C-alpha cells in the first residue's frame, strides 16, 4: 500500500507551506479510503512519496485519473491566510491504495 502526495511546484511555496499542504492532503485522502485500505496502509508503515505537479491543471487531471480508477484522493484548496490566494489548489493525495495502482497514475512525476 502506498500514498502519493503531489504538490504544485509552480506556486513557489516555502518548504513549511509545502509540508502543511502535503499533510492536509495526506490526511484527507486517508479519510476517504475504506477501513481495509486504512488498516493495511497503517500496518505496512504508511508508505508515502511526495511528487511535483507543474500546474493546477495537472493536479486536477491526476485527481480525475485517480477517481476514474476508484482510488481515494483529495485536492487541497488553501484558505489563503499566508502565501497563496484563497481557494488556490496546492496539493493532491492519492491513496492509500495498492502501490501499482498509485504508480500507474503518478509514476511519471518527479520527486518534490
TrEMBL record:
It comes from Salarchaeum japonicum. Coiled coil: none annotated. The natural substrate for this enzyme may be peptidyl-tRNAs which drop off the ribosome during protein synthesis. It catalyses: an N-acyl-L-alpha-aminoacyl-tRNA + H2O = an N-acyl-L-amino acid + a tRNA + H(+). Belongs to the PTH2 family. Its EC number is 3.1.1.29. This is Peptidyl-tRNA hydrolase. It holds the Pfam family PTH2. Gene3D superfamilies: Bit1. It is an enzyme of class 3 (hydrolase). Its main location: cytoplasm. The keyword Transmembrane helix does not apply. One of its GO terms (molecular function) is peptidyl-tRNA hydrolase activity. GO terms for biological process: translation. Keywords: Cytoplasm, Hydrolase.
Amino acid at each position: 500500500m502506498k500514498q502519493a502526495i503531489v504538490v504544485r511546484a509552480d506556486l513557489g511555496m516555502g518548504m513549511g507551506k509545502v509540508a502543511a499542504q502535503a499533510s492536509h492532503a495526506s490526511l484527507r485522502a486517508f479519510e476517504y479510503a475504506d477501513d481495509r485500505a486504512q488498516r493495511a496502509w497503517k500496518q505496512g508503515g504508511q508508505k508515502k512519496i511526495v511528487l511535483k505537479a507543474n500546474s493546477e491543471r495537472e493536479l486536477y487531471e491526476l485527481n480525475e485519473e485517480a477517481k476514474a480508477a476508484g482510488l481515494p484522493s483529495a485536492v487541497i484548496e488553501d484558505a489563503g491566510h499566508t502565501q497563496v490566494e484563497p481557494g488556490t489548489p496546492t496539493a493532491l493525495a492519492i491513496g492509500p491504495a495498492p502501490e501499482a495502482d498509485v504508480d500507474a497514475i503518478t509514476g511519471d512525476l518527479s520527486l518534490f
